[in-house]
Each structure stands twice: as structure tokens, then as C-alpha cells.
Records
---
Amino acid sequence: MTSSPAAPTVRAIRADLLDFTATPAWGDASDNPGGSVRFRPDHWLLIGADGRITGVQAAATFEPAPGIERHDHRGRLLLPGFVDSHVHSPQVPVMASYGTELLDWLNNYTFPSETAWADAGHATRGTELFLDALLAHGTTTAAVYPTVHKASAEALFAGAQARGMRVIGGKVLMDRHAPDGLRDTVAQAERDSIDLIQRWHGRGRCSYALTVRFAPTSTPEQLAMAGALARAEPTLYMQTHVAENRDEVRWVAELFPQARSYLAVYDDAGLLHPRSVLAHGIWLDADDRARLAASGAHVAHCPTSNLFLGSGLYAWRAASAAGHATSLASDVGGGTSLNLLRNAAAAYTVQALQGQRLTAWVALHAATRGGAEALHLGHELGTLEPGLMADVAVWDWSTGSLDAERQRVARGLHERVFAWMTLADERHLAATWVAGQERYRRSTT
Ligand code: GUN
Ligand code: ZN
């Protein structure tokens, strides 16, 4: 948080404000577990000229001064913008592809589609569509995989910067087991990565992630190169996939017979550290979870993807008990929605299938403050704390007679928010703000 004096308040948004001040306990569906939930109905969120939150005031007793731009969303819900910790910018065209599990899905649909991003103009157009779609689904921060092509990472950073969005991303590393036009080499990948790091890491709201697609598409030499870059610059992120699908896990065991586990392939290469974001983590064992906790790395849980591709059920409670964080992610195009509410609802289902209960608090915390903290961005975003960036989204509690009726009968805050999380989607989104600028507004508000 900044210690310099706050910029003067220039605009104010009126709504029901919801955020988290601590991590809610697993399974506690009370209205405010351990004081972690902060619900402030009918308040003004005040925003400074620098795009940061300057304060919060109750609408009953406060009137914004003349000259302050007002956005009156009374009766709506305002949350921090969602943090999507794992999503693929080129995969909008492969969403909802029929009939395959992971490895065939990659070979039949995803790799062929990603080869088209060799064309920089195509990559730029696809990236613009993708970033605008994130905003139209309530997401203001994302950890993104573009493609193997350097220009696709350029397009991501430039597009995010033009919108003021916080992004983490990097050119995808893949030098084997992929079609022509979608492979790099160790030397080229190293050159491209270093150049992109020098120009984009820490510029504006962009951070670079060494982006190993997954162990099967990188040679041991490429993993070692990525590990060396990680050691040389500890502020870099690392993102990859791990233990998503059983056939994939068997293949990794064949490719890396010396590794204790799939996770150990990355660990052995020096790629497990507090800024490592590992997607899926379904088929991990207790030793892997302990190692994740000890390393400070965390898992990006991708529930709509895991259900759609038939990958398996993520053991969120075991992860939490082992002491590593879990963030929430869409994994589009394996995932079927960019909207983290749809993914939160799917996450509830994934837990229900294992006899567990995911509260709205645990899910929405993972989509906001929890995701921000897991990505070491808690000082910048994820709550409505003064000094943080005004990255926020305003939602309707209901848009039709059915969910309105469900809201009307809800007893207590958890029931109300849980019903909202489960029934709402991006059609409930009224507006999205990034660094204090309105970047999306529903045309029918
Ligand atoms: N594993 C390697 N690449 C991918 C990808 O693009 N999507 C998913 N879901 N898993 C992967
Ligand atoms: Zn993915």
C-alpha cells in the first residue's frame, strides 16, 4: 500500500460492497466466518485521480462533494474485479470442442488453432477480443498463456497496458511434441524470453511469467533453461500445467523416468518457488502437496475445464490442509466460461462430488483477495482497501423473476451470496472498472 498522500477523490460508485479482510475457514457457511467477510450495503466507494481507492462511506450519512463524478448503482453488488489465475488468450475459438480428453483435445483442436497465431495481426486481433471479453465477464487481472510466438506475448502486454489491466504472462515454451509452426528451440526461446522480460517485466501493470506449457512439450534442456532464468531473476513468475489428466500423468512418467512425480519434474528443474502457478493439480499425492506448501507455489483450480474435459476432481480441502493456496481460474478454452462465477459454481459441484462443501466465501475469496495474495498482488488489488487500485465490478443481484425470487427468500448473507454465485453469470455484470476507469458497461444498464 502506498504511504504517499492519497490523490483527491474524483469519482464515487454507490452499491452494496463485498470483500474479504482475511481467509475464510473451510466449510463455515455462517454470515461472517471469523470476521473475514466485509459486507457494506449501500456504501460509496471513493476513487482518486490516480485510480486508487481513497475510502468507503455509508450512503445514509455521506454525500459526495459537488464535482465528484457519481455512478449510482444502488441495489447492486460491487466486488473487487476477479483474478483469473490461468487462462489461454488464443483459445476462445476452441471453447466447447466436442468429444475428447486432454491429449486428444490438444492435438485435434488446440494446437491446430494456436498455429494461426504465428500471424501477428491475427494474434493482435484475437488478443483484443480476449481482453475485452475478460472485462465483460468481470475479470480485471489474469495470468495468461498466449502462444509459442513472441508476437502473441507482445500483443498481450500491449493490449493489457492499453486497458490498464494487471496481467501476468509470457511466451509459451514448447520445443517438442507439437506440430510444425508451434515449436521453438531452446536457444530461440531463451532469446525471445529475455527480450520480452527486459521490455515488459515490471512495466506498468505487466509481469513476466516463464510459461512452460507442460512437461511433455519441453525437453529437459528447455526446462533447465527456464530454471536458469528463474534463478537469475527471482521476481519472475512461472506458470505451467501439472497432473491434470491420468493419461498425461502416465506419459510424463515415461518421459521423465527419474522424477519422483510429475510435480518433481518442475521441482528438479528449479521451477518451483513462491511465484509458481500450477494449473489443475488433480492427480497430486500428499508428498506433492507438502512440497507445494514448502515451496510457496500454489494451484490454479480450473473447475469448468476439469469437468468438461473429464479430467478429475480437485482435492481443494486436502490442498488447504496441506498448507498451499488455491486460486480460481477459467482455463478457457478447456474451461467453458470466462466468468469466474460460473467457475465458482462448478467448483462447488466438484467439491460436492467428493462429499465436501465449498462455501461462497471460500470460492469468492479465491476469485478475489485469495487469488491476488497467491499471486503476490495483495498490496495492489483484490480488496476494497484504501490505497489499492480501483479494479472493481458491479453486478446485479438478479436479472429475472426466478433469481429475484430466490434472492427474496434467502435467509442471511451467506445464503443470499451463495444463491447469487450459483445462479448469476456475466449477464448480471453491469460495469467493470480498471484502475478507476470504467472499461466495460452493459449496454442495457
Ligand atoms: N496442458 C497443456 N496445454 C494445455 C492447455 O492448453 N489446456 C489445458 N487445459 N491443459 C493443457
Ligand atoms: Zn490451461
---
Amino acid sequence: MHDEHVTLQQHSGALFGDRFPVSGWRTRFAPAPTGYLHLGHLVNAIHVWGLAERYGGFVVLRVEDHDLTRCRPEYEAALLEDLEWLGFVPHEASVSSFRAGPTVYRQSDNGHAYREAITALEKQRLVYPCTCSRRDILRAVGPVAEGEEPRYPGTCRTLGHPSTDTRARRVILEPERVSFQDLRLGPQEQTPANDCGDVLVCDRFGHWTYQFAVTVDDRDQRIDVVIRGEDLLSSTGRQILIAHALGRARAPAYFHHTLLRTPEGRKLSKAAGDTSLRELRAAGASAAQLIGNAAFRAGLQPTPAPISAADVVRLF
Ligand code: GLU
């Protein structure tokens, strides 16, 4: 069993529970340029920059454009511009280099790192070619609830397909329990082999998956603390297992924050057309008004009083 009972105190010398910060740990803001940033991203940015500043962390900006079919350069340009307008400045991707591009970590520039990582897993016989379509998987496991991923039943694990049959690869996740201490939600236990089965790391078109790309990036960019919405909580156990398989001795610590939801309880999303920050800006809202509103809706302050990016540290 993997036990990741890590607090920020033990984790990197930083002090989370105590009242004085020790600097030096690294976190990331990692939006996918599949649409414009909305209030949900802003809640994430408030947590990332606020906690980093409060407890002595550094913020790395990572553009998560592994899904080349949905990401667009104009969304990347827009998110960089939105962040600058809001006043959230990453420590790695300085404002002066903001627009120049090369210092922004971008997953589409990282293919070599993912290829090296998969080769290392292949050497340990931890990945195998998988020819199953989604339909094959559903046929094997039966229907799944709306929005749920079916658990991969391991069909191709022992079939020994030649690597030339498909580009799709899965990583073997042994049936172990992963425990970790979420820095907001407390002790968590997950068994990824039961929840999702062997994870797809690359699909049949050769596209890297979110689970794999993010775990390689968190290792290579030396991310100590992952701060993200609680919709991603169920991904954490599998990312910890993949991180260990990739030779990372200690997985990051995790802080999963509350999400903004629509009145019907759905999380905000670009795909569903929720109002973007730039539309709100065009309608006359100031950056401080938007940040204050997002902080209020996330329960971080009692009123929607405007607050600047430089002051979000006061919310923590
Ligand atoms: N790129 C993901 C998103 O925009 C975040 C992934 C993560 O924080 O692990 O939702």
C-alpha cells in the first residue's frame, strides 16, 4: 500500500498548519486552452496564488494542451492575456516573457519527455498495447452512469499484442490501496485498480492522455503541491501510482478546493458556454470585482468585496 501521509510541514520544509511560512515549494496553474477562462478558473487561480504566497510557494504556469484536437492557440493567447489583466503573475513564465512564449511550459512541446517516460515504463513491462475501443470496454463491463468512465477490465493486459497493432498504451495499476492526506479534505483512500483499471497513457492516434502528461509534468517540473478543484480528486490515486511507476520517490501533496457550481449543481465549464472572464470584462467588470466575486462564491470571503490579485493572500 502506498502511504502518502504528507503534510506541507513534512513535505518540503514548508509550514502549512503553522503560522510562519518557509519558502521554496512549487505549485502550478495548469489550464487547458480549450476555451476562455471562466470564474471556475479564477477560483483555482485564487487558491494557487493565495496559498503559494501565504505559505512560501512558487507558481509555475503550465498550458495543458495535450488534447490537440480541442486546444487552440487563440485560447492560449487569451488565457495568458487574461492572467496578466487579472494580475496573477507566475514565478516561472515572468511577465516580460509572458507573451514571448518559450518559458511557458506547454504540453505540446513536451512530447520527448512523454516518449522517454513511456520507454522507461516499457522497460519495466508496466505498459502494454491496448486495441480495445470504448464500445469493447462497455460491452465487457456493462453500462456506466452518465459522465462516468468505465473501469478498464484488463482485456489486453495478457494478450501480448505486438506494439505495431496500435499506438494505444495502458499502464498497469496493481490492485493496491493508495492513501494520501488531502491538505483541505483530510485523509483519503483510493484503489485505482478498482475505480478505473489500467490507465490509458496514449490513445490510438498517439495522443497523450491527461493522466499521463500531467504526472510526467508534475515530476519534471518538480511540483511539490498540486492545488486544483475537487472534481479531480478521483484522479489523484492513479496519478500517485503512475508517479511511483515513473520513479518519483514522493508524489506531490494535494489540495483540492471547492468548485463553483451552477444553480442546478453542475460545475462551470467552457463547453457548456459559461460566461468567460473576458465577457465579464467587456461588460465593464474590473479585475478586482471579478476576483472578489469568485472568492465570495467559493466561500473565501463573506461578501463579494473587490480584491486585487496581489491581496488574495489575505483570504488564506
Ligand atoms: N488542465 C486541467 C484543467 O484545466 C487541470 C489539471 C490539474 O490540475 O491536474 O482542468
